[in-house]
Amino acid sequence: MNPVAKTNSACEPFSVQLAGTPAEIGGMWGRINREPIRHDMEAFFLKPARDVSLSEGALIEQSKRFIEIVEQIAPHWLEESAAIAVAAGVDPRLYVAFVAGIYRSLFLHAECTSYAVQSAITRDHAIFFHKNRDNVDKSQCAFVMNSRVPGVHRFIANSDASAIACMMMVNEKGLAGSADYPGGLMPEKAPPRYRGITNPLLLRHIAERAEDCAAALAIIREFVDCGHYAGGDVNETHWLFVDRTGTILQVGNNDRKVLAQRHTDKVYFSRLRDSSAARRLGEAERPVDFALFHGVSRDPSICIDTSISGMTVEIDRDRPDLFSCAWMSLPARSASFPLLMGQRRTPLCLINGEAYRLGKATGDHHALWESIEGGVHAGKSLLKECAKKPEFTSGSQRASTIIEQWSEAQSTAMLRVLQALQPP
User: Fold this and answer.
1) Prior bond to 75 cis, omega within 30?
2) CA 40, CA 335: separation in Å to the nearest integer?
3) CB of 173 within 8 A of CB of 237?
4) What superfamily does domain 113-420 belong to in CATH?
5) Which helix (H) or strand (E) holds 292?
6) Which of the 8 DSSP states describes residue 151?
7) Are 174 and 156 in contact (CB under 8 A)?
8) Which of 335, 266, 272 is nearest to 301 (CA)?
9) How far is the C-alpha of 406 from the C-alpha of 377, rounded, in Å?
């Protein structure tokens, strides 16, 4: 057994640690997600290319600009991708081309939805962030990434199982963010660019390097100014960032220009501002607590058949490196698995698509999920109270172990419920 993978019993899910060198992380990812990698490359990349008489050699040639940029900004991605390809049994050059180009071709005109609220109206001034991702039906994963590359932050994210990217994320510095279909701030139209870095990978770079909203904006501006950003036919991207100070920042960009606006309204929605989901938050008479904020994500007005994943984030002001929590729903209407920033391991069912497969096959059980999540959230609050005890102050490894044990117990219980609810 791999030294960074473990299981507690036959009934509990394996957990794995996405940590170490880029080659170690990539090798593990490729072994775990061999099938979705091979499936997605064929179904969404190679076959569509053949349909328009685009050869594999041409696909590799098109990735050269991507490689040039990545060699400058994040060379560890190339080492990681090569290891993924070898472990998955695919051509490393084609896999890099797949990572470079797949997200432009898969953009849907069904928009994702991101939202946030001012901490002034939340219970205990909690800082919340959420995104529902809408896209084609592909195996979804959630993970805690802990690279040894100097200067790279630990982060939690959602991505397709076939590639390590970020559809939404939160990092150890207390920055949460999402990259969506255009909406809100819209720069003047500009000619599209097809060679460069697409927004799921730019968001990963932000997760790895930025500490707050201002730093995230600076990175986006740099990418646009340097010609590194590639938006393809869609071109524009809508970004939402929230950081540990409670700042809510909306950004809109295309290949030529970046616009930004800090929001001070009570509630911010990237779209559907008149939806029942938005009204539930905007008209709340009591302080917005976790149950209300998170529960809104399953409202039918923003949670639809194409909502393949959802992530609610609670950013901890004092110890974002330990207690910021991402509640991962795969798909968005399904049960939420809590991942705490202080843990190093991720339940295997979240990485390999099992939670997504089970969640898709399970009917709508909103009341059940909310009841379970309420209890889990209360337990997390008690866990935070332990932060002043010696085991949390004597060393980060001890704190990580305690957090991991708690998180794994919640994930094990949630997985069992999903399994029990499967149709006969």
Assistant:
1) no
2) 25
3) no
4) Penicillin V Acylase; Chain A (3.60.60.10)
5) helix 290-295
6) T
7) no
8) 272
9) 12
- Selection from 331, 319, 311 nearest residue 177 by Cα: 311
311-322 b/e (C-beta count within 10 Å ≥ 16 → b): bbbbbbbebbbb
Residue tagged 């730019």 (tokens): 202
E strands, 58-171, in order: 113-117, 127-134, 140-147, 155-160, 168-171
| Cα Rg of the chain (Å, integer) | 20
Average pLDDT over residues 195-208: 94
Cβ-count burial of 127 within 10 angstroms (0-12 exposed, 13-18 middle, 19+ buried)?
Answer: buried
Tell me if 128 sits within 8 A of 313, measured CB to CB: yes
Q: Hey, what are 176's tokens? A: 């949460």
β-strands 140-147, 18-20 pairing = parallel
Average pLDDT, the chain: 90
The Cα 100–Cα 104 span in angstroms is: 9
Domain boundaries, the chain: 15-105, 113-420
Percent helix, strand and coil across the chain, each to the nearest 5: 45, 20, 35
Match 């800082």 to its residue by tokens: 127
For 140-188, what is each residue's pLDDT tens digit? 999 999 999 999 999 999 999 999 999 999 999 999 999 987 667 777 8
List Cα–Cα distances, 242 to 173, 263, 291, in angstroms: 11, 10, 19
| Lookup result for tokens 């001070």 | 264
Summarised one tens digit per residue, pLDDT across range 70-91 is 999 999 999 999 999 999 999 9
Token pair belonging to 384: 């935070």
User: Could you tell me if 299 and 275 are in contact, meaning their C-beta atoms sit under 8 angstroms apart?
Assistant: yes
Q: Of the given ranges (20-24, 159-163, 265-269, 355-359), which has the lowest mean pLDDT?
A: 265-269
